[in-house]
Amino acid sequence: MTENKTVPPYSQLARVYDLMGADDHSIMMTEYCLRIFKRFHIKPVKVLDLCCGTGTALKIFSDWGCTVSGLDRSAAMLGIAAKKLKGRRIKLYQKSLPKFRLFEKRGRKEVRFDLVTCFYDSLNYLTTQRDLKTAFRSVYEHLESGGWFIFDMYTEASLRILWGGQIYAGALDDIAWIWRNNFQKRRKTAECETTCFVKTGEKWDRFDELHVERAYENEKIITMLKAVGFVVKGFYKCHTFRKPGKKTFRVCGVAQKP
Ligand SMILES: C[S@@+](CC[C@H](N)C(=O)[O-])C[C@H]1O[C@@H](n2cnc3c(N)ncnc32)[C@H](O)[C@@H]1O
Questions:
Q1: Could you say which of 62, 146, 163, 166 would form a disulfide bridge with 190 (CB–CB 3.0 to 4.6 Å)?
Q2: Is the pLDDT of residue 132 over 90?
Q3: Residues 46-75: what's their mean pLDDT?
Q4: Could you tell me the pLDDT band of residue 3, with boundaries at 50, 70 and 90?
Q5: Is residue 207 lining ligand 1, measured as CB closer than 6 Å?
């Protein structure tokens, strides 16, 4: 019998992330961003994608002519991103939220961007209010005046309904996965125990990861954004310009540094 150790989130999932179609969300978010840009007359030039994962959004922003940088704590995810972005001048930082500081190549000046994005419930991985607020502050400090922050997050409804006590499974020719989820109402956190099987040659490898996310009330998120200095320009049911409702699974925030 083989012993399966749980490894850090995304350290193994990275190699199957795009194959499972998980990066489709980035594509949808960049399309939604185009509509947000139009609505608020945003013309991004210098973009930072936080929790950039395998770099799909970075590639799209770069195709649009933006100067882009990505940040993620997972070396494995950044490794896939680096391959995808080969030949492009894109800076990738291996750093962790909540507090991050990025400096110009030489010197002590912090790099500033005119757009910071963070897609696919990456911010839900911050499981304390303090960490979420610190992350918002770090974003604020890395924006030019007038710069924008666009992000999406899971809501309590999604963690409770989509993750609470649910099991999901899928299989392709060379990959199979099982997600076993649970939700703790009091802490508003959900755990997703991920087991993946990946075929290499004739052999199947197994790995296990534990992913923990937390939900925040919409009002709380807005209050924290305002507390660090942002003007909240929009807070929507994601992919629309409608107000989120009680059953909304994903919200999108659009905030501007004055
Ligand atoms: C669901 S994936 C999203 C990746 C990408 N944004 C996308 O849309 O495909 C979450 C990403 O957040 C990163 N992440 C989670 N917690 C983080 C933290 N505290 N600091 C930096 N990156 C983090 C993970 O390594 C992972 O790449």
A1: 163
A2: yes
A3: 98
A4: low
A5: no
Quote the CA–CA distance of 209 and 218 in Å, as a whole number.
28
Here the tokens at position 205 are: 């490898």
Provide the whole-model pTM.
Answer: 0.96
β partners of residue 143: 113
Higher pLDDT, 203 or 109: 203
Class of domain 17-155+215-256: alpha beta
Q: How would residue 4 be classed by pLDDT, with cut points 50, 70 and 90?
A: low
Q: 97: CA distance to ligand 1 center in Å?
A: 9
> What is the DSSP pairing of strand 203-214 with strand 6-7?
parallel
189-200/175-184 β-pairing: antiparallel
> Which of the listed residues 15, 122, 238 should we mutate to test ligand 1's pocket, taking the one with most ligand atoms within 8 A of CB?
122
pLDDT for 1: 42
Output the CA 208–ligand 1 centroid distance in Å. 17
Would you tell me which CATH number, out of the four given (2.20.25.110, 3.50.50.60, 3.30.450.20, 1.10.1760.20), belongs to the domain 158-213? 2.20.25.110
Ligand 1 center to residue 187 CA distance, Å? Answer: 21
